[in-house]
Amino acid sequence: MSAPAAALPHALSLKADYKVVKTELLERFKTSANVDSLMRSLARTTDDALRGAWEACELPATLALLAVGGYGRGELAPFSDVDILVLLPEDAPPHIEARIERFIGMAWDLGLELGSSVRTVAQCIEEASNDVTVRTSLLEARCIVGSTALVESFTLRYNETLDPRAFFQAKMLEMRQRHAKFQDSPYSLEPNVKESPGGLRDLQLILWITRAAGFGSSWKELDARGLITDREARELRRNEGFLKALRAHLHVIAGRRQDILLFDLQTAAAESFGLKATQTKRASEQLMRRYYWAAKAVTQLATILVQNIEAQLFPKTSGITRVLSDRFVEKQGMIEIGSDDVFERSPNAILEAFLLFEATPGIKGLSARTLRALYNARDIMNQHWRRDPENRRLFMEIIKQPHGITHAMRLMNQTSVLGRYLLNFRRIVGQMQHDLYHVYTVDQHILMVLRNLRRFAIAEHAHEYPFCSQLIANFERPWVLYVAALFHDIAKGRGGDHSTLGMADARRFCREHGITGDDGELVVWLVQHHLTMSQVAQKQDTSDPEVIKQFAELVGTERRLTALYLLTVADIRGTSPKVWNNWKGKLLEDLYRTTLAVLGGARPDAHSELKQRQEEALALLRLETVPENAHLALWEQLDVGYFLRHDAADIAWQTRVLYRHVRTETAIVRARPSPIGEALQVLVYVKDRSDLFAGICAYFDRNGLSVLDARVSTTRHGYALDNFIVAHTEDDVHYRDIANLVEQQLAARLAVEALLPEPSKGRLSRLSRTFPVTPRVDLRADERGQYYILSVSANDRPGLLYSIARVLAEHRVGVHAARINTLGERVEDVFLLDGRGLSDNRLQIQVETELLRAIAV
């Protein structure tokens, strides 16, 4: 229903006035940065506009308009929702719905993102009893205009039905569910400033609970009641102010409600705080570090407050359960200090608390009193404390415990104890990694790697990575691996090679903590070479005996090899859920087993390896009832490289498929679910031609199949025998279901020598657009001069591999093998190319130039 004619000019005037005032407030905020003044002023301005609309619609005085939610607190972020409640008396006037609809429509016309509800007092109480979200929003209800008597009646009824204990339990459950959505970590690279752990919602939740319980509705009131100290109240106000300001700046920058600190917005947000890029730190990195420290402090202080509130709400369940030592007792599964000054009197007790946390069954964490004492003991954790021999002994005991190491280290990081003990670890707390590979801050990545190593050693997780679990079960003193994990990336962000700089830190730590002999040397060596095994497995031709020989010489011993393998698997898994896959796992395991054989005395002899592979494949063929000697027609056309690049199972499968079709005139395509993980294995056998690899890549690209690995062989009689491992870009694909379709479509595509289609310039992901990788192409002859090695580094995008393959096809450069390596949003691909023709320097330069153009964004 439209507004009366008399109301229209008034509505236009209200809208114009509201827009002018809001614009002025936002411009003033850009220069003053006073977020509290901005949010209060926006709430008042919105109050005025809504009163004007209420009066224009001539709503009766028996109704009331209430602000609820954050708006009810008298605070509004620049583009937040405006939540209102139209409160009706039980005997509401007839036909009032039309006027209310007119009012709500006018409020929307003002430009407000309105969240509205229309209820009686009884309906409000009923909704609140059924929904904790409604109960919460009504907790901060504030009258804007209308009947004060009706509002007082609502407030009285609401308070009578509010159960503080039930409300506390409901909000704790809600918080746990919310935190779980963000992996229980405040360290997301694109955090939600409002909803993430350590964000504004955690602070609001505490004040909702304390308000409901009658303990106070501000930090000052909680301080007066003794729930927090003066220092904690100051810290809470400071961090709350920063988070509010950051959220307001995000809204202003985006011109809309925007609570997620996206990569695209981080630089602009940093500059709004006056941060400038330096030679070593981007402005965005400085902002994010500040954010992470704020979120960490909020998490610590919120934990203290929640426990204190719980103790007051449930006093009968907060007594001492048992005495743990002269300094500590247990209270309901939490370690509590015996006296408030225990850390001042006995600084060794700081690390002792974490050792007890590990060693005592049933302990869930540290009590609020203990956390508060740790928070206030930061000045004690100084150089003298770090050098204390007893503290060094305690720290090593924490690392050597059979259980609870991951939880202890995470708790030590959350309470800032780990960074106070290892000063260089403190430097990487909250440090971002703009490499499109890691999705965690450096400190969280290190703790994730430590967690992965520990899971290898826990029987309940042995099914996840059984080979790793088997190795670590037989590994002497596995705590050496945990020390290496703590230091492997500790030098990130200092400039220079972090592996080399980290070695110095690790060597010093070992010397100071009595880690000597082989153990100390192993820790330092692992930090130095923690990237080596993944580089060899993913970028070098591990079918080349010389590559294995050199790697075995570098490793030297079985213990070093096992340690490096375990650390490498844990490291890759700790970068991003997208980076690890079973194919990479197989590459690493194959490299481990081959190197182990060489370390055990086996010679890296291509001929012996060839014979062994062939014998294993023949044994499998016999099980498949393939006729005796039927394989010979195919195998006589294959070179040594084919047998070294494929394992026995693949050789047997391909032979069984092809032994009847050695000189076929039509393309043979076979597909099956990959034996090594969620992927599809595709075999292509057809007469070779220069554009074949590009044509196959074009098909995969057009059908949403990403190439994980390609093993390309050319037979002596001119056929291509190519093996691909591909994965669909969608996660819910059943590879058995699409295998037949791929076989038919790809065979039909190869039956005709069609022109190669133009490559699609697929869009980069938002992350890649924000942090572009400089495209790099390197083309050089191998040591024997038989092949050329092409290395390509670029941002990943749809169609990239086909773009590369098309350039090679246009210059009639054959692909002998390909190692496709996707690292998050970045690719590091290596191709072994046919060397004929590439010895011409001009052709090399032309190919490299065109490749750079093809992979550029």
Structure commentary:
- With 857 residues, the chain is α+β, with helices and mostly antiparallel strands.
- The chain is built from 39 helices and 17 strands.
- Strands 13, 14, 15, 16 and 17 form a five-stranded antiparallel β-sheet that branches.
- Helix 19 runs antiparallel to helix 22 (442-456) and helix 22 packs across helix 29.
- It is globular and about 100 Å long.
Salient structural properties:
single chain, 857 residues, alpha+beta, Beta Polymerase, domain 2, Four Helix Bundle (Hemerythrin (Met), subunit A), Hydrophobic Seed Protein, five-stranded antiparallel β-sheet, four-stranded mixed β-sheet, 39 helices, 55% helix, 12% strand, globular, ACT_dom, hydrolase, HD/PDEase_dom, phosphoric diester hydrolase activity, magnesium
